[in-house]
Amino acid sequence: QVQLVESGGGLVQAGGSLRLSCAASGSIFSINVMGWYRQAPGKQRELVATITSGGSTNYADSVKGRFTISRDNAKDTVYLHMNSLKFEDTADYYCYVQAVRGMISYPFWGQGTQVTVSS
């Protein structure tokens, strides 16, 4: 079992910045991919950004140039630094971890943290 604890959400003014963090604890699993998804009211959950254990990153087109994902492998923690926030970024943000045991990978999800951007 992998447990994920998120923090850093809150209310921020448009144009401002916010940093989310997610600390993973467990397990007998090896952490491979870490990332962030978000879900706005009335919308499906969508990928925001991911990062591999080797540091390779991927971003949704809507956040490229504004958001930066990073991780501290020694602490099993992933961060999402959000700059130039827009009202459209308002959503519940969920930490995602792909953990590997043997030849099988398993997804784990955080409890979600709310980000509200005021216009």
Task: Report on the architecture of this protein.
With 119 residues, this protein is mainly β. It contains no helices and eleven strands. Strands 2, 4, 5, 6, 9, 10 and 11 form a seven-stranded mixed beta sheet that branches.
Structural descriptors:
single chain; 0% helix; 11 strands; four-stranded antiparallel β-sheet; mainly beta; seven-stranded mixed β-sheet
Question: Would you summarize the structure shown here?
Answer:
The chain is mostly beta strands.
Number of helical segments with 4 or more residues: 0
Tell me roughly what share of residues is in helical segments. Answer: under 10%
- Backbone shape: elongated
Question: Which structural class do the helices and strands define?
Answer: mainly beta
Order of helices and strands: EEEEEEEEEEE
Low-pLDDT runs of 5+ residues are none
Chain-averaged pLDDT:
95
Separation of termini? 40 Å
Query: Number of DSSP strands?
Result: 11
Largest sheet: 7 strands, mixed
Strand content: over 45%
Radius of gyration: 14 Å
Write the layout of secondary structure elements.
Layout: E1 3-7, E2 10-13, E3 18-25, E4 30-39, E5 46-51, E6 57-59, E7 67-72, E8 77-82, E9 91-101, E10 104-109, E11 113-118
Parallel strand pairs: 2-11
Antiparallel strand pairs: 1-3, 3-8, 4-5, 4-9, 5-6, 7-8, 9-10, 9-11
